[in-house]
Amino acid sequence: MPDETQPSSTExxxxxxxxxxxxxxxxxxxxxxxxxxxxLHARNYESTDDAFIQSDVVLISPKIxxxxxxxxxxxxxxxxxxxxxxxxxxxxxxxAVAQAQASxxxxxxxxxxxxxxxxxxxxxxxxxxxxxxxxxKSAEAEAARAQADADRYQALYAKDEISKQALDQAxxxxxxxxxxxxxxxxxxxxxxxxxxxxxxRQAAVETRSAQVEQAKAALDQAQLNLSYATIVAPVDGKVxxxxxxxxxxxxxxxxxxxxxxxxxxxxxxxxxxQLAKMRVGQPVTFKxxxxxxxxxxxxxxxxxSGTGSEFSLLPAENATGNYVKVVQRIPVKxxxxxxxxxxxxxxxxxxxxxxxxxxxxxxxxxx
Length: 367
Description:
The structure is a single chain. The chain is 47% helix and 20% strand. It is an alpha+beta fold. Among the domains are: 57-91 and 228-260, CATH 2.40.50.100; 93-227, Helix Hairpins (Orthogonal Bundle), CATH 1.10.287. The strands form 3 sheets. It has a 7-stranded antiparallel β-sheet, with no helix packed on it. The radius of gyration is 51 Å and the shape is rod-shaped. The chain starts with a helix and ends in a 10-residue tail after the last strand.
């Protein structure tokens, strides 16, 4: 019996040794196929862990100096555009408005008086010219009559028909009439200066008008400064970095707080070698480190016009010293397709892993 079973065991061992290369070959083939499939899939996607959430941050500063009367908001409070944030004591600015209003009213009164004076000068000037013309004609007629009487009396006196006293009286009357004519001519010349007086009054009106405009500008500025005493939110967002307290003295430009807007996006620093097929509008999926399992979608919005090192505080000087080529990174702005819900807040600085489908046709990029 042993002699009959021995060849059978040898056969099994030989068959077993013959199957091992086949199994190993099959495994290798499967691995190669899997690797090829993975490579074919992976080459259509570009990803990076050098990516962070960004949002617009609006710094809130006063435009006027004063004492803080009230702080209406708290840290991390949500606000809407137009909500009151801080109030500055307005009393000094209310007094300035009252003073500017009084100056404006006074300027208006002076302008009205100047306009009335101009109207009177125009009317009285025309009347004075007409009156002077009439007076001159009357005086000339009276002077002609008086001179005629004097000439006639002179002839009568030569014939001894009248007394010397009568002649002297007639002569005096003629001279007085001639003087009246000269006086009326002087009045007419004076009346003809009315246009110059009108021009002077017109200049006075224009000066008063300019003073009114100046007073109105001062009033508008005072009212504007008073409005600045109430600081409101310019945008929707959340309050952060609050650095203001009641009673604090503020100055223009001093940072009181900041508002982080509710419009997050992602800045992903891709290697320049990853951008060959990346285009604006291609779809992106985001994995948020702080929200595991909460994935979002978006699109490539734009590429920065330069590498990150080019806009650093101390850009590299590649033309000096020894040069070692380093793959540069390009900041790429990625936007979300939907607004994250309140339970998954995306805050500036949070880490994100975006994956861009570089094989997809670019969709229309959002502005």
